[in-house]
Amino acid sequence: MLRNAVRQTKNYVHALLLRGEAYYCPLCDESYSAFIDRQICPRCRSYERHRILWLYLEHLLRQQRIRLGGRLLHVAPEPCLAKVLMRRFDYLSVDREPGHAMQVADISALEFAEHSFDVVICNHVLEHVYDDRKAMSEIQRVLKPGGWASLQVPMRSDAPTDEDPTETDARERLRRFGQEDHVRLYGFDYFERLQRVGLSVEAVTWKDFLNRETAERCVATNDPVFIGWKL
Ligand SMILES: [Zn+2]
After folding, report:
1. What residues are neighbours of ligand 1 (ion), with CB under 5 Å?
2. Measured in angstroms, how far is the CA atom of residue 4 from the centroid of ligand 1?
3. 29 CA to middle of ligand 1, Å?
4. Beta bridge partners of residue 104, listed in sequence order
5. Which of 185, 229, 230, 214 lies closest to 52 in space, CA to CA?
6. In 3-state terms, what secondary structure has residue 214?
7. From the CA of 197, how far away is ligand 1's center (Å)?
8. Among 13, 51, 77, 140, which one is least packed by beta carbons within 10 Å?
9. What is the pLDDT of residues 79-115, one digit of tens each?
10. DSSP label at residue 231
11. pLDDT (mean) for 205-210
12. What's the gap in Å between 216 CA and the centre of ligand 1?
């Protein structure tokens, strides 16, 4: 609790020092003279991937392709996104560890009925999960027809997925999969895996829904958003 308060105060002071007009964070609706390390919002600590996802959500809401107040499941919730999602959706967050979300849940065995959610946000999770096919199927099952999931993962496009759930050596995981607690590094077959569980996949970039000026001001010009639609 105290650590949270100290962090929030630090972020607040940081944001005050970087007050300005050059950059804009749509998550905290504030503008700044700079982002930390050219990409982190000084106030809410969002990265580019969080801002582009939020901008895309706003776009879908404006287009009425998703419903304001719809049911949203946020897996392993990023605090900067949780705050804004709660205001727009009927929001529920889950995490496999206690204390990180509203409920404890295993993404590979969700206790929700099928067709429960309009939106699932599950970013940077699947690369940690042993049985990712099961997790993808669960996401597809709990989505309503016409619903969609944001499924961002680290991936490379020049090789297939490298995975090994039996690999437990942290240094070897870091070398092969990019992080000590990852069990795979996704490759060009990632979309195929999502399609196999019945999701229709799209990689959305800023060019699909933003003008260059807004994208550059929000620093949202590189990361695509990986979306799986349940048709
Ligand atoms: Zn922010």
Report:
1. 25, 27-28, 41, 43-44, 46
2. 17
3. 7
4. 95
5. 214
6. helix
7. 34
8. 13
9. 999 999 999 999 999 999 999 999 999 999 999 999 9
10. -
11. 94
12. 15
Domains and CATH numbers, the chain: 1-45 (no CATH), 47-229 (3.40.50.150)
| Residue 1 Cα distances to 8, 86, 93, 99, 107, angstroms | 11, 21, 19, 12, 27
Instruction: Indicate the range of 4-13, 14-23, 156-165, 184-193 predicted with least confidence.
Output: 4-13
Q: What is the Å distance from ligand 1's center to 25 Cα?
A: 5
Cα-to-centroid distance, 159 and ligand 1 (Å): 34
Are 183 and 124 spatial neighbours (Cβ–Cβ below 8 Å)? no
**DSSP SS3 for 73:** strand
**Could you tell me if 110 and 142 are in contact, meaning their C-beta atoms sit under 8 angstroms apart?**
yes
C-beta of residue 184 within 8 angstroms of C-beta of residue 127: yes
pLDDT of residue 104: 97
Task: Name the region of 112 (left: φ>0; alpha: ψ -120 to 50; beta: rest).
Answer: beta
- Tell the residue number behind the tokens 């096919």, with chain if given: 133
Q: pLDDT by residue (tens digit) across 18-70?
A: 687 899 999 999 999 999 998 999 999 999 999 999 999 999 999 988 889 99
Provide the token pair at 221: 């010009």
